[in-house]
Design a protein that fits this description.
Blueprint (H helix, E strand, L loop, with lengths): L9 E5 L6 H11 L2 E5 L18 H6 L2 E2 L12 H17 L3 E5 L3 H9 L9 H14 L1 H11 L1 H6 L5 H14 L3 H6 L13 E7 L3 H17 L2 H9 L16 H8 L5 H24 L4 E5 L5 H10 L1
Parallel strand pairs: 1-4, 1-5, 2-3, 2-4, 5-6
Helix pairs in contact: 3-4, 5-6, 5-8, 6-8, 10-13, 11-12, 12-13
Length: 314
C-alpha cells in the first residue's frame, strides 16, 4: 500500500507507557514517508535518557525524533508551548513532502493540539510553592480535597496521585479566582492555527492488563540495570535541580531521587517506581477511554502493523 502525503492526515499514535508505541512508529517510518514528532513531557529534557525511555542513537539514526532532548531539566514546559512547537514541526514535515507521525503518552499534549487551549493565568511560583508545602505536610490527597471544593469537575477528572496536574489546577484557581474548568470552557472552539490539518488518532495497548503490568516491571528493572540510579545521581548533584520541578517529578526519577536522599531503601524504591509507572499507565488508559474518534488496536496482535496501515489508508 502507498500513502499520499498530501491527502494523508497527521497520524497521532497514542497508548499507555510500555505499550509498544515507539516500535510501531519506527516500523511505520521505515515503510512510509513519515517523520516522528515525540509527544512526551519527559523526553524533552537533556540528560534524562534512561528513565524516559528515550530512543538510543542507533534508533534515532533509523527514525529521527523531533521534540526530544532540547530542554534543560531546570526549565518548565507547557501544553501551550508544545502546541506551538508541534505545529511548527508538522509544517516543516509537510513542506518536505512527508507525513507527520506524532507518538507518545502525554495525553494532555494531544488534547491541547486537538481542542486548543484557553489563555489561562501564567504560572505563579509563590502559589506553586504554597501548594507544594501543603502537599508535603498533608499529602497530595489534601491538595486533591481542596481542588474538589473549588473545582469538582477537575477534581473528579484528575487522579489524586497526579501531582503536576493537581498543582496546576489548584494554582489556576488561587491565582485567578476561576476554576480550571471555567477556563477550559472558554477554549471549546479549536484554535484556527491547525483548523485545516486533519488528525487521525490511533491507540495501542495489550488487551490483558497483566501483560502491560509485566512489561512495566520488566522495563523499569532494565532501566535500573542500564544505569538509572547513576543518571539521577548526576541530576541530583546539580544545585539548581530539586524535587519540585516537573522534570524531577517524572515517574521513576522522583522515586530514585528520594532513594538517593535516603528516604527509603533500594527495594522500596524499585517497588514504588513500578507502582508509580502502573498508576501512570492507568491514568493514560482513562484518558483513552474518553477519547472520541479513536481507533484502538491490540498491541499483541500479530497482524498489528497491517491492521494499522489499513486503517491509515482508508
Amino acid at each position: 500500500m502507498e500513502l499520499d502525503p498530501q491527502s494523508c492526515p497527521v497520524i497521532c499514535l497514542m497508548g499507555p507507557t510500555a505499550s509498544g508505541k515507539t516500535a510501531l512508529a519506527i516500523e511505520l517510518v521505515q515503510r512510509f514517508p513519515m517523520e516522528i514528532i515525540s509527544v512526551d513531557s519527559a523526553q524533552i529534557y537533556r540528560g534524562m535518557d534512561i528513565g524516559t525511555g528515550k530512543p538510543d542513537a542507533a534508533t534515532l539514526e533509523i527514525a529521527p525524533h523531533r521534540l526530544i532532548d532540547f530542554l534543560d531539566p531546570a526549565q518548565s514546559y507547557s501544553a501551550a508551548r508544545f502546541c506551538v512547537d508541534a505545529r511548527r514541526e508538522m509544517a516543516e514535515i509537510r513542506a518536505r513532502g512527508n507525513i507527520p507521525l506524532l507518538t507518545g503518552g502525554t495525553m494532555l499534549y494531544f488534547k491541547a493540539l486537538r481542542d486548543g487551549l484557553a489563555q489561562m493565568p501564567a504560572a505563579d511560583e509563590k502559589v506553586r510553592a504554597e501548594i507544594l508545602t501543603m502537599a508535603n505536610s498533608g499529602g497530595w490527597a489534601a491538595v486533591h480535597a481542596e481542588l474538589m471544593q473549588v473545582d469538582p469537575v477537575s477534581g473528579a477528572r484528575i487522579h489524586p496521585n497526579d501531582p503536576q496536574r493537581l498543582q496546576r489546577a489548584l494554582e489556576v484557581y488561587r491565582v485567578s479566582g476561576r476554576s480550571l474548568t471555567d477556563w477550559q470552557r472558554d477554549a471549546q472552539q479549536k484554535s484556527g492555527d491547525d483548523a485545516d490539518e486533519p488528525l487521525l488518532f490511533l491507540s495501542i495497548q495489550p488487551t490483558e492488563r497483566s501483560v502491560l503490568h509485566n512489561r512495566i516491571e520488566a522495563r523499569f528493572r532494565k532501566m535500573l540495570d542500564d544505569g538509572l540510579v547513576d543518571e539521577v545521581s548526576l541530576l541530583r548533584a546539580r544545585r539548581d535541580l530539586h524535587e519540585g520541578l516537573p522534570s524531577i517529578r517524572s515517574v521513576g526519577y522522583r522515586q530514585v531521587w528520594q532513594y538517593l536522599g535516603a528516604e527509603y531503601g533500594y527495594d522500596a524504591m524499585v517497588e514504588r517506581g513500578i507502582i508509580a509507572t502502573r498508576q501512570l499507565a492507568k491514568r493514560q488508559i482513562t484518558w483513552l477511554r474518553s477519547w472520541s474518534s479513536l481507533h484502538n488496536f491490540d498491541s499483541e496482535d500479530k497482524n498489528l502493523i497491517d491492521t494499522v496501515i489499513n486503517t491509515i489508508g482508508t
